[in-house]
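User: Hey, quick favor. My workstation is busy. Could you predict this chain's structure for me?
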Amino acid sequence: MTHRLASFPIVSLLLLCLFISPAFAGDKKTTYDHINLSVSTTDEIENDTLVVQLYTQKEGQIASNLAKQVNQDIKWAVQQAKQVPNITVQTLDYHTTPTYHKQSQDGWRVKQSLRLTSQDTVAISQLIGELQQHLMIENIRYKISQKRRSEAENRLITQAIDAFKARAKLISKTWEHSNYRLVQMDINTSGRAVQPMFRAQASMEINAVNAPPLEAGKQTIQVTASGTIELL
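Assistant: No problem, here it is.
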């Protein structure tokens, strides 16, 4: 009686193996004839948005007086900028730091920056010239607007997927398979600026009221489609 009962666990184990084995076999089969491939499409897109950062900075003995002067300059600049349509105005970090001479504090430096963003290059260039009566240019850079970037990426995504399909068909044909199926795919986008950023030199003075010459330049947008196919 004891020997007959002991055989039950062995039979149960054999039945369990019979149920599990086909599942393992099916999983293993899906790894057959898998090929990884990747294609990229690129395009150079012209920048259409200008971003300008200006600042005012005062140095002296009394920090409260310096802060008042800086506030007046920024307030004036904001008022001037808001009179020009289609320009976004943003005030940036405000800094008060001590100044030193021969390792001893001799005063204070107060600085605040202002950022202007616009797609109207003519209007913002004229505004830069006006604002340099009281502010100095910190940097100027171009970028692609989100709308233009999205349009370019959508177009390149379509091209990348079409190129992926063509490459997959070529591989299937070369390996003498009638077709393929897509197992998985990743789409990645990236952008690289071609036009370098303009940065003001330390020698630039406030009386240089003419805006610097500007050239929009382009950015290279790239879309990569990478994935795995299974030959059928």
